[in-house]
Specification:
heterodimer; A: 793 residues; alpha+beta; Aldehyde Oxidoreductase, domain 4; Aldehyde Oxidoreductase, domain 3; 3 domains; 7-stranded mixed β-sheet; 5-stranded mixed β-sheet; B: 289 residues; Uridine Diphospho-n-acetylenolpyruvylglucosamine Reductase, domain 2; Uridine Diphospho-n-acetylenolpyruvylglucosamine Reductase, domain 3; Enolase-like, domain 1; 5-stranded antiparallel β-sheet; 4-stranded antiparallel β-sheet; 11 helices; 14 strands; 33% helix; globular; binds flavin-adenine dinucleotide
Chain lengths: 793, 289
C-alpha cells in the first residue's frame, strides 16, 4: 500500500490553501486587530508641499488637547539622534523632517493620543510655517545646472545626482556598434507605480521598562531584518527585541523597508511606557511608502542584417525621490537591471546607470519584482520589438534567432549572470500555437474592414529570482540565505517554522507540501508558523520570489536531515543495519523484504520512546540554505488587442501565458500567482501610475486616482506550463511570484504598439490610457510620459 | 476612518429632518447613500457638526410613472434600483444607459440618484442626465415644497440651489411628447471611475422626427455642462448623417475641458463629439415605435 503523494497533499497537489480558512471568514489576525491594554494611538502629520524649508513648528495647541500624550517633532527626534535613519541603499532618510521637507507627504510631526480621533484632531492643530522652494519632479530638472539642491543636508553631495554606475564591456560593445548593419534605438519611461497592498503599513511598539523588552508587532515581509535594524537604530540588545509579523494583508515589496512610522512608534513607546499603535491610512501608504519603478531608458541594439543581435547598450536614468532608499540587497547600484537580455545570446553589452534625487516619495522597492528586474525585462522586450520592426523581421522569428538554446546552458550572459536551465523556444512555440499566431495577419485584415485595429505583442524573458547567494547578496552585511526548523512530534505530526514570511502567498499550504513530499507525513498534519523572531529561525524574509528558491530549499534540506535520523531509528526498530534500509514515501523497509517496514510516524514515536542506545532523543532539526545561484524561470506572454480608433480605447482579445517555473509544488497556487501578476501587469499597462504635477503634488495618492483594476475589466488569461527543473534546487523549483508582473507589461505595450506600427508609432509609455493611444494614432508620434502632468479638472 | 467629531441624528419623518436642518442653521448635512459624503468626511474635506440621516424616513424609495408619463424618482432610490428596473429599461433609455455606468456595483447598492444630483460633482453622471432630460428637483423646507428646474439647480462644482433647511425629496422628469429615446456614454479608465468625459443624450421622437432633445456633459468642465442648445440642430428633423454631425459639433463646442492627466482638452472634446454621434446614430437606426 504505497502512499499516494497527491492524496497526502505532497508535491503536485492543488491543495486548497489552509490559511484561507481564516482569511475568507474575516478571522485573519492583522496588526490592526491586535489590541493591547493601555495602548495609545499615533498619527503622523505629513507635509502638504513637495519642497520647503521649515521655518517653524508650533505644537502648543496640539499639546493642549485633552487626551494628547506626546507630540514629536524632528527637533525632538534629533535630540535623541533619531531624526535620520539609514536606508537599505546606504543613504540616510529623514524620520521626521528637521530642516526641510523634500516630498509631499513627508512625515513632519507625530501625535500620540488616547485614541486615533484625538491624534488626528491634534495633528490638525499643529501649525507649520513653510518657506516654499521650487520642486523637482523628474531627472531632467534634477540634472539642470541651476537646479536647487534637494539633499543639502549631506556633506559632500554635489547637485542632485546619487550615482553613476556601469557594467559590461564598453570597448567591445562600441566595436559591435561600429560593425553593425543597423542600429535600433528606443527611448522610454517606465512610470512610477505603487505596490498598494490592501493592508497599509502599521505597527505596535510595546516597550516594557521593567523587563527592558521591546515587542514590536509589524506588518513586515522580513521580521528578522526588522529586529536587526531596530537593534542597530534604537540601540537595544537583540535578545530583548521580539518582532512579530502577524498575518499580512499583502506586501508586494512595500513591506520590506523600515519606515519612519515604525521608528517614531518605538520611541513613543519608550517615552510613554505604553504600547503605541500606528496604522497608516491609505493615502499615507500611497504617498510615502516604497514605490516601484520610475526609470528612463535609452536603449540601443547593434544588429546584423540576418537578425542576429551583435551588442546592446542600455542607458538608464532612475528617479529615486528624496532619499535613496531602494530596498535591495545587491552591491549593484541599480539592482539587477543588468539581468536584461539573459534569455538572449548576445556577444556583448554595456550599461550605464545614473540615479537622481527628486522631490518625490523615496523607496524604490521591488514591487513584485527582484530589484529592478521588472524594468530590465520591460526595457529588453521593448527593445526587442523595436529591433525586429526596424529590421522588418517577424517579432517571433527575431526572438528565435537570438534565444539562448537549451543545450547552451549553463550560459554566461553578456552582463555576467549565469543562467542554468530553460526551454525558451518550446515555450514560445506553445504560446504562438495557443494564440494562433499564423493566422494573425488574416485576422488583422478582417478587423480592419470593421474599422478596428488589431495588434499582437510578445514578451519572452528569463529573470533571476530568489536572492541570493551569499557571495553577491546581503542586506546591511547580512547574507541572503534562509532557514527552516522542523519538529516532528511523537504522534508523527509536525510543526515547521521558517525565516520567510507568507503574505497571502500560501506558505502555510505549500511548505507543508514540501515536507509531505520529503517525509510522507500528510500535509494536513503539519503546522506552518512564521513571523515571530522569538520562535522562527533567522531568515531574510519574503520578497524577490525568494521563498521557494531559498526557504523552500531549506525546508527540503531539513526534512532530509530528519529522514536521515529516522532511518537510523528505523534500522533500530527493524533490527537490521542502516545500509539494509530502503525508503519509499512515508516508510522505511528492509531491502528485499518490502512488507517488513516502519512508517515515519513509527520512527517519530520511537524518537521519544524507544530510541537506540546512545542516540539523542527527539526528532527535530534546523537547516540553513545558501543557494548556489539564483533560479531562472522563463515565461512567454502574448497579448492580442483591439483598438477603437475613434477613442483610443483598447481591449484584450486574448492573452496567453506560458510559464516555466520549474517543478510546481502546488499548481493551483502557482496559477493564482500568475493570474495576480498578470492583473498587476495589465494595471500598469492600462491605467495605473503615480505621477506628479508642476508643484510636486502627487497624482495617485488615493484610489480614485491610483487605479487598481477590478474583475470587471481584467481580461481572461490562458495559462500553459512547461517544466524545466532548476538544476541546483533540491526539489527543482524556481521562483514564480513575480514572473507575470515582470514579463506581462511588455506583452500589452508591444501589442498596442504593434497595432499602430503602420502609423510609424514606436512607443507609447505606460499607462497606455486611451488619450495616449489616440494621440499616437492620430499624430503618428511616440508618447513620452515624463512628469509633470497638469492636474485637476 | 477618522472624521472630525459630529452629531448623528436619524429622524423618522421628513418634518423632523427639516426641523433638524433648520435648527442647525447650516451646520448640518444630509446623509443619504453616503457614497460621496462619507469619503469627504474621511478625508476631512467636509466637517459638519451634525449628520441628518434620511434613510429611516419612509416613502422616499419609489420610481413611478404618472399616467401622463411623468417619471418620479424618490430621494432614497439607489442607483442599483434604477439599473434593475424593468420600467426604466423600457421607458427611459437615457437613465437606463447611465445607471450601469455610475460608479461600481458596490457603490450602486447604496448611492442615491437624488443624492448624486445634489452632490453636483462636475464628473457625476446623474446631474448630467437630469439636465439632458429637462428634469426638476422637488425641494421641501419649513415653508413647504418648491420646484427647482435642473438648469437652475447646479450652481457650480459641489454647489446646488437648495437652502440649508431644504431636502430634495424627489427628482422629476417630464413626460415626452412622443417616445423617449437617447443614451449615455462615458469614457472611464476602469469600472468605478468618474468620467473622463461623458455624454447624456435625451431624445423625444415622434416617428422618425425629433420633437425634443437634450444634451449634457460630465467631466469636461468646472461643473456639469448644459448643452441643451444643441437641440436646435435636430428639432423637427430626422436623424441623418448631416443633422447628427451638426448636432455633435454643437454639443462638443459647449464642452470646457481642461488638459490634465486624463487627456488633452482637444481629446476630451473629440470624445464628446464621438459619443454624441454614436448615441444619435444608434437611435437613428432603431425603428420608430
Ligand atoms: C468609489 C466610488 C465611485 C463613484 N463613481 C461615480 C461615478 O462614476 N459617477 C457618479 O455619478 N458618481 C459616482 N460616485 C458617487 C456616487 O454616485 C454617490 O452615490 C452619489 O454621488 C451621492 O449619492 P449618495 O446618496 O451616496 O449621497 P451622500 O453621499 O449621502 O450625499 C452627497 C451630498 O448630497 C447631499 N444630499 C444627499 N441627499 C440629499 C437630499 N435628498 N437632499 C439634499 N441634499 C442631499 C448630502 O448632504 C451630501 O452633501 C462614486 C462614489 C464612490 C464611492
Amino acid at each position: 500500500m504505497k502512499l499516494d503523494e497527491v492524496k497526502i497533499g505532497g508535491m503536485g497537489a492543488s491543495r486548497k490553501r489552509v490559511e484561507d480558512n481564516r482569511f475568507i471568514r474575516g478571522k485573519g489576525n492583522y496588526v490592526d486587530d491586535i489590541v493591547l491594554p493601555g495602548m495609545l494611538h499615533m498619527e503622523i502629520l505629513r507635509s502638504p508641499v513637495a519642497h520647503a524649508r521649515i521655518k517653524s513648528i508650533d505644537t502648543s495647541a496640539a499639546w493642549d488637547m485633552p487626551g494628547v500624550r506626546l507630540v514629536l517633532t524632528g527637533e525632538m527626534m534629533a535630540a535623541r539622534n533619531l531624526a535620520w535613519m539609514p536606508t537599505l541603499s546606504y543613504d540616510t532618510a529623514a524620520v521626521l523632517a528637521t530642516d526641510k521637507v523634500r516630498f509631499q507627504g513627508q512625515e513632519v510631526c507625530a501625535v500620540i493620543a488616547d485614541d486615533p480621533y484625538i491624534a488626528k484632531d491634534a495633528c490638525g492643530k499643529i501649525v507649520v510655517d513653510y518657506e516654499i522652494l521650487p520642486p523637482i519632479v523628474n531627472p531632467v530638472q534634477a540634472a539642470a545646472a541651476d537646479a536647487i539642491q534637494i539633499r543639502d543636508d549631506k556633506a559632500g553631495q554635489v547637485g542632485n545626482k546619487i550615482f553613476d554606475w556601469e557594467i559590461g564591456d564598453k570597448a567591445r560593445t562600441d566595436k559591435a556598434f561600429e560593425d553593425a548593419d543597423l542600429v535600433s534605438k528606443i527611448e522610454l519611461h517606465y512610470p512610477r507605480t505603487h505596490p498598494s497592498p490592501m493592508e497599509t503599513c502599521g505597527s505596535i511598539a510595546d516597550y516594557d521598562r521593567a523587563t527592558g523588552k521591546l515587542t514590536f508587532y509589524v506588518t513586515s515581509q522580513a521580521p528578522h531584518i526588522v529586529r536587526a535594524a531596530v537593534a542597530m537604530v534604537a540601540e537595544l540588545p537583540e535578545q530583548n527585541i521580539r518582532v512579530i509579523s502577524p498575518d499580512i494583508g499583502g506586501g508586494f515589496g512595500n513591506k520590506v523597508p523600515i519606515y519612519s512610522g515604525y521608528v517614531i512608534a518605538i520611541l513613543a513607546s519608550i517615552l510613554t511606557e505604553k504600547p503605541v499603535k500606528w496604522i497608516e491610512d491609505k493615502t499615507g501608504n500611497l504617498v510615502s511608502t516604497g514605490f516601484g519603478r520610475d526609470v528612463y531608458l535609452k536603449g540601443e541594439m547593434a544588429l546584423r542584417k540576418d537578425g542576429k543581435i551583435l551588442g546592446v547598450r542600455m542607458n538608464t536614468i532612475s528617479d529615486h525621490g528624496a532619499f535613496f532608499a531602494d530596498a535591495q540587497p545587491s552591491k549593484f547600484k541599480i539592482g539587477l537591471m543588468h539581468s536584461a537580455f539573459a534569455a538572449y545570446d548576445i556577444p556583448t553589452a554595456h550599461m550605464f546607470a545614473t540615479g537622481y534625487y527628486t522631490n518625490k516619495a523615496p523607496g524604490g522597492v521591488a514591487y513584485r519584482c527582484s530589484f529592478r528586474v521588472t524594468e530590465a525585462m520591460f526595457f529588453q522586450e521593448r527593445m526587442v520589438q523595436a529591433a525586429a520592426d526596424d529590421l522588418g523581421m517577424d517579432q517571433a522569428e527575431f526572438r528565435r534567432v537570438n534565444f539562448v538554446k537549451d543545450e547552451q546552458h549553463p550560459h554566461r550572459t553578456a552582463f555576467g549572470f549565469l543562467t542554468d536551465s530553460g526551454q525558451y523556444e518550446k515555450c514560445l512555440d506553445i504560446g504562438l500555437e495557443a494564440i494562433n499566431y499564423k493566422n494573425f495577419e488574416a485576422e488583422r485584415a478582417e478587423a480592419a474592414k470593421r474599422g478596428r485595429l488589431l495588434g499582437i505583442g510578445i514578451s519572452t524573458m528569463t529573470e533571476p529570482l530568489g536572492a541570493g547567494n551569499s557571495r553577491e547578496y546581503d542586506i546591511l552585511g547580512i547574507k541572503m540565505f534562509d532557514s527552516a526548523e522542523l519538529r516532528i512530534h511523537m504522534s508523527g505530526k509536525a510543526i515547521l517554522r521558517t525565516g520567510s514570511r507568507g503574505q497571502g502567498t500560501g506558505h502555510e499550504t505549500t511548505w507543508a507540501q514540501i515536507v509531505a513530499h520529503e517525509l510522507g507525513i500528510p500535509a494536513d498534519d503539519i503546522l506552518v508558523e512564521e513571523g515571530d523572531t522569538d520562535t522562527a529561525p533567522f531568515g531574510m524574509g519574503t520578497y524577490a520570489s525568494r521563498s521557494t528558491p531559498v526557504a523552500g530549499a531549506a525546508i527540503a534540506m531539513v526534512a532530509r536531515k530528519i529522514r536521515a535520523k529516522a532511518r537510523k531509528i528505523a534500522a533500530h526498530l527493524l533490527e537490521v543495519s542502516e545500509e539494509d534500509i530502503e525508503w519509499e514515501l512515508g516508510r522505511f523497509y528492509v531491502r528485499g523484504n518490502e512488507s517488513r517496514g516502519v512508517t515515519i510516524q513509527d520512527c517519530a514515536m520511537a524518537a521519544y520512546s524507544n530510541m537506540p542506545d546512545g542516540m539523542e532523543p527527539g526528532l527535530e532539526n534546523t537547516a540553513y540554505y545558501d543557494p548556489p545561484n539564483l533560479t531562472w524561470p522563463f515565461a512567454c506572454y502574448i497579448a492580442k488587442v483591439e483598438i477603437d480608433p475613434e477613442t483610443g480605447v483598447w481591449d484584450v482579445l486574448q492573452f496567453v501565458a506560458v510559464d516555466d517555473c520549474g517543478v510546481r509544488i502546488n499548481p493551483m497556487i502557482v496559477e493564482g500567482q500568475i493570474m495576480g501578476g498578470l492583473t498587476e501587469a495589465y494595471a500598469m499597462a492600462n491605467m495605473q501610475y503615480q505621477t506628479y504635477d508642476e508643484e510636486g503634488n502627487i497624482i495617485g495618492g488615493n484610489y480614485m486616482d491610483f487605479l487598481l483594476p477590478t474583475a470587471w475589466e481584467t481580461p481572461g488569461f490562458e495559462l500553459y506550463e512547461v517544466v524545466t527543473p532548476c538544476p541546483h534546487h533540491p526539489i527543482g523549483a524556481k521562483g514564480v511570484g513575480e514572473c507575470a508582473t515582470v514579463g506581462g507589461p511588455a506583452a500589452f505595450v508591444n501589442a498596442v504598439v504593434n497595432a499602430l506600427k503602420h502609423k510609424g508609432v514606436r512607443n507609447i509609455d505606460m499607462p497606455m490610457m486611451p488619450n495616449r493611444v489616440y494621440e499616437a494614432l492620430t499624430t503618428g508620434k511616440d508618447i513620452y510620459g515624463m512628469p509633470p502632468v497638469r492636474s485637476g479638472n | 476612518m477618522y472624521p472630525s467629531r459630529f452629531a448623528y441624528e436619524s429622524p423618522k419623518t421628513l418634518k423632523d429632518a427639516i426641523g433638524l436642518l433648520d435648527a442647525a442653521g447650516g451646520d448640518a448635512k444630509i446623509l443619504a447613500g453616503g457614497q460621496s459624503l462619507v469619503p469627504m468626511l474621511k478625508l476631512r474635506f467636509a466637517f459638519p457638526d451634525q449628520l441628518v440621516d434620511i434613510n429611516n424616513i419612509p416613502d422616499l424609495d419609489y420610481i413611478t410613472f404618472d399616467a401622463d408619463g411623468t417619471l418620479r424618482i424618490g430621494a432614497l432610490v439607489r442607483h442599483e434600483h434604477l439599473e434593475k428596473s424593468a420600467e426604466i429599461a423600457k421607458r427611459q433609455p437615457t437613465i437606463a444607459a447611465a445607471a450601469p455606468l455610475v460608479a461600481d456595483p458596490i457603490v450602486r447598492t447604496r448611492g442615491t440618484f437624488v443624492g448624486s444630483v445634489c452632490h453636483a460633482d462636475p464628473q457625476g453622471d446623474w446631474a448630467a442626465t437630469m439636465i439632458a432630460l429637462g428634469g426638476y428637483i422637488v425641494a421641501q423646507g419649513p415653508k413647504g415644497k418648491r420646484k427647482i428646474d435642473m438648469k437652475d439647480f447646479v450652481l457650480g462644482p459641489y454647489a446646488n440651489a437648495l437652502a440649508f433647511n431644504e431636502i430634495a425629496v424627489e427628482a422629476v422628469i417630464p413626460a415626452p411628447k412622443g417616445v423617449a429615446r437617447g443614451g449615455y456614454l462615458k469614457l472611464e479608465r476602469r469600472v468605478g471611475d468618474f468620467a473622463t468625459a461623458s455624454v447624456a443624450v435625451a431624445l423625444d421622437m415622434q416617428g422618425e422626427t425629433v420633437v425634443g432633445a437634450g444634451f449634457a456633459l460630465a467631466g469636461v468642465g468646472g461643473k456639469t455642462i448644459d448643452a441643451n442648445d444643441a437641440a436646435s440642430a435636430l428639432i423637427g428633423k430626422k436623424l441623418t448623417e448631416e443633422t447628427i454631425a451638426e448636432c455633435a459639433a454643437l454639443v462638443a463646442a459647449k464642452a470646457e475641458p481642461r488638459t490634465d492627466h486624463r487627456g488633452s482638452s482637444e481629446y476630451k472634446r473629440h470624445i464628446v463629439a464621438t459619443f454624441v454621434k454614436r448615441i444619435l446614430t444608434a437611435n437613428s437606426t432603431q425603428k420608430a415605435a
